[in-house]
């Protein structure tokens, strides 16, 4: 008999008809039996189940091991064998946080104190680099200077993309790798100026969208890039070296160090009435240029710029233009300058009228001998002739006439037109003149002989043998030994005969086309233009050089004294910069 509350204690019970079920030990595998009225219950140990604890349970059926851990069953319990990188009863703890690649292919994982952080690749942001970071758009160059470049861009499209970023990173580096710098620009701005750059260099510019992180490792987008060049330094020392009626010559200078990046030079010219400029590119080794085929007496503007870059399809960068030069071409010199009449003390010269449309202000007449030079300013732009007086008999003179044109308060002087003359002696009517480029001639006017029985007019067989009246004629003698006679009684009829020179000029000792002139004791040589010397053996050329000319002008002023008008004469001198020519001679004899 079992007294309630005495479970587990041995007692002596009276014999009863009821049987104790636990006496037969129905529970197996160490299970504990509990007797109930008319039944029993087995309390099974871990790992066993069933009415009698007869069935063994597999503890690994529930797969308790995580992260690929291997479960081992034993004695109703299990054991997790963890893979590399995990530990714990169920392999739930990760020893390498980056083992599972939490950043994916969008970033790089960094483990620290059992946790990880992601360093995102360009174009991604967020804790696990799951968000895309978009770059700016429409990057362009606004302005280029010698030491700086101004750029601008547009923010990424979409409000979410704009709200995500914190600013922009602008990186610029020289093409040769010698210079690199990065500037940060706030997201409220979309432009930036690059400073402290070298003149004439190429730079690679990249702009990124930036998202700042707490670990100070900013996320950036893919870049937008462009290549640009700074301006080279402008050329130095631009000046005009020569000006003619149809050409202007200029020159400049390039410094070896300051202009090291210059690849070529562009020279430009513009006429005030022209719609487009004319430009020519020359190599950096050239330091001078001549503009040709220009109009006479016109104002031109000239400037020069330096270029940096390879050229071709890539347009080079142009420097700031040099200070422009405003240059007037010279007017045309007087055409066909001729000596119409030459006496012992004067010479009357004539020339063609200027071309229509040319507004001349004055002429300058220069009279030059070997000992002196005199200049006369004649303020008459329509003048076509002039008489030079106060000459000396038997002298050789060089006459030059220069046209003067007014140009914006200044005066332009043409190249002088030259004429060579020889005045006649006092005791005769001998006159000579010599135009540049023609052989010297002597003009004599004399009465004809009383009778010329032996003289016949050429190509006139019907002429009488003896003229009834002695005609007057002009005899023209030049250095080539030819005589041309013109008779007034027979206009249009000329006769040419050969004259005989004295013996001392028979071998013509004058060189280079010079003409031998006989004298009493010795001969002399009348040289052609461009040659000098006793035997015309020196070849002379004119070298241009800057100079100033002094002109005098005489004006009369009426003055009343006691009711009588008198004229007072006043001489005014003017100084004008011009280009003079220095004569340089070299011997033509064989050495």
Automatic annotation (TrEMBL):
Q: For this UniProt record, give its keywords in alphabetical order, as a comma-separated list.
A: Disulfide bond, EGF-like domain, Glycoprotein, Repeat, Signal
From the UniProt record, give one GO term of the biological process aspect. Answer: Notch signaling pathway
Where in the numbering of this chain does the EGF-like domain appear?
A: 18-54, 56-92, 94-130, 501-537
Q: Which residues form a coiled coil?
A: none
- The reply to whether Signal figures as a keyword in the UniProt entry is yes
MF terms (GO), sorted A to Z? calcium ion binding; Notch binding
Report disulfide bridges, numbered on this chain.
44-53, 82-91, 120-129, 527-536
Q: Which Pfam families match?
A: EGF, fn3
Which SUPFAM superfamilies does the protein's record reference?
A: EGF/Laminin, Fibronectin type III, Growth factor receptor domain
Q: Which InterPro entries match?
A: EGF, EGF-like_Ca-bd_dom, EGF-type_Asp/Asn_hydroxyl_site, FN3_dom, FN3_sf, Growth_fac_rcpt_cys_sf, Ig-like_fold
CDD domains xrefs: EGF_CA, FN3
Q: What is this protein called?
A: Sushi, nidogen and EGF like domains 1
What is the protein's species of origin? Answer: Phocoena sinus (Vaquita)
Task: Identify the coding gene.
Answer: SNED1
């Amino acid at each position: 008999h079992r007294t309630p509350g005495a479970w587990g204690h041995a007692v002596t019970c009276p014999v009863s008809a009821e049987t104790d079920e636990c006496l037969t030990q129905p529970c197996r595998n160490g299970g504990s039996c509990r007797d109930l009225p008319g039944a029993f219950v087995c309390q099974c140990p871990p790992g066993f189940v069933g009415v009698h604890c007869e069935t063994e349970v597999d503890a690994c059926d529930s797969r308790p091991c995580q992260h690929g851990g291997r479960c081992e069953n034993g004695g109703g319990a299990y054991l997790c064998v963890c893979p590399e990188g995990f530990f714990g009863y169920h392999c739930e703890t990760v020893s390498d946080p980056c083992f599972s690649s939490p950043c994916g292919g969008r970033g790089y994982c960094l483990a620290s104190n059992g946790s990880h952080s992601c360093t995102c690749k360009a174009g991604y942001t967020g804790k696990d680099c799951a968000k895309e970071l978009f770059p700016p758009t429409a990057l362009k160059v606004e302005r280029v200077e010698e030491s700086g470049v101004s750029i601008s861009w547009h923010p990424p499209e979409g409000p979410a993309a704009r709200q995500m970023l914190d600013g922009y990173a602008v990186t610029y580096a020289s093409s040769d790798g010698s210079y690199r710098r990065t500037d940060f620009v706030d997201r409220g701005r979309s432009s930036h100026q690059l400073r402290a750059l070298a003149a004439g260099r190429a730079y690679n510019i990249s702009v990124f969208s930036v998202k700042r992180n707490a670990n100070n490792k900013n996320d950036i987008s893919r870049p937008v890039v462009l290549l640009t060049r700074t301006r080279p330094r402008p050329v130095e020392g631009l000046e005009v070296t020569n000006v003619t009626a149809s050409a202007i010559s200029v020159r400049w200078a390039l410094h070896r160090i300051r202009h090291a990046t210059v690849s070529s030079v562009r020279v430009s010219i513009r006429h005030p009435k022209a719609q487009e400029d004319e430009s020519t590119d020359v190599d950096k080794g050239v330091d001078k240029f001549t503009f040709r085929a220009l109009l006479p007496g016109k104002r031109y503007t000239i400037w020069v710029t330096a270029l940096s870059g390879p050229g071709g399809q890539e347009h080079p960068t142009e420097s700031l233009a040099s200070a422009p030069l405003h240059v007037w071409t010279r007017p045309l010199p007087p055409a066909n300058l001729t000596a119409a009449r030459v006496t012992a003390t004067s010479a009357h010269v004539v020339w063609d009228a200027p071309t229509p449309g040319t507004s001349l202000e004055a002429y300058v007449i220069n009279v030059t001998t070997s000992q002196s030079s005199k200049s006369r300013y004649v303020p008459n732009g329509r003048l076509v002739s002039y008489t030079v007086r106060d000459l000396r008999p038997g002298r050789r003179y060089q006459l030059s006439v220069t046209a003067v044109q007014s140009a914006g308060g200044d005066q332009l002087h043409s190249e002088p037109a030259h004429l060579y003359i020889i005045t006649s002696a006092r005791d005769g009517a001998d006159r000579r003149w010599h135009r540049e480029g023609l052989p010297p001639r002597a003009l004599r006017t004399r009465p004809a002989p009383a009778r010329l029985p032996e003289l016949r007019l050429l190509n006139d067989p019907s002429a009488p043998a003896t003229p009834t009246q002695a005609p007057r004629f002009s005899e023209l003698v030049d250095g080539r030994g030819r005589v041309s006679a013109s008779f007034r009684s027979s206009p249009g009829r000329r006769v040419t005969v050969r004259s005989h020179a004295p013996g001392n000029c028979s071998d013509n000792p004058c060189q280079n086309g010079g003409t031998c002139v006989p004298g009493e004791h010795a001969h002399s040589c009348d040289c052609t233009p461009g040659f000098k010397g006793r035997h015309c053996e020196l070849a002379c050329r004119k070298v241009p050089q800057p100079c100033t000319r002094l002109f005098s002008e005489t004006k009369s002023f009426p003055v009343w004294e006691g009711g009588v008008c008198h004229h007072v004469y006043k001489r005014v001198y003017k100084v004008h910069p011009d280009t003079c020519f220095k004569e340089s001679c070299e011997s033509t004899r064989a050495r």
